């Protein structure tokens, strides 16, 4: 069932999502449906979203939820849904998840929405997701709100970091003014919606063939 229909008819645990997120989820996550995706959701809330992802991705998927609230442990189902308790900004904890579950194919950050936490998770996890992985950050309206360490054009805001990453994505063309990075060579695309940033990996070759097709 499409995610949106499932969300509308869900009478199980509460799912806390904005309506316009659903087309974006379908666009970026549908390639993992019925695959053996290892999916990490940061922030379990009332547990309904973990069940939604399980139904959406199908019987081979492994859904990992993390939260600082130990009551979320109850959302593990002993089958496809695993919950671990920890802080999304604690890289030791994040490493323990990779040690236990292997690299994630997709990450959805719906945790604290605090800029330094989003950044800590992204900086650690993005380089470690699989080579065609997807990293999805939602509720980025907080990037404009002081109480989440955000603010319009404030350097600490994750949206401001995304603006820098656009340059990093294009660093090969900066005529030496900036050096390409692992982000440059591994990132296929970046996408923005109201309150959402999505990063898709997918490069395994040079961006142009030697001698041929190189843009002037
Ligand atoms: C918006 S709710 C998640 C909603 C859920 N994903 C859904 O769609 O229904 C945010 C969750 O993030 C958790 N959280 C807050 N700070 C956190 C942190 N530093 N690390 C991990 N989880 C955190 C909260 O306890 C809360 O359960």
Automatic annotation (TrEMBL):
Leader sequence residues: none
CDD domains according to UniProt: AdoMet_MTases
UniProt entry keywords in alphabetical sequence: Methyltransferase, Transferase
Classification via Gene3D superfamilies: Vaccinia Virus protein VP39 (3.40.50.150)
GO biological process entries: methylation
Top-level taxonomic group: Bacteria
Entry keyword annotation includes Acetylation: no
One Gene Ontology molecular-function label: methyltransferase activity
Transferase in keyword set: yes
Name the record gives this protein: Class I SAM-dependent methyltransferase
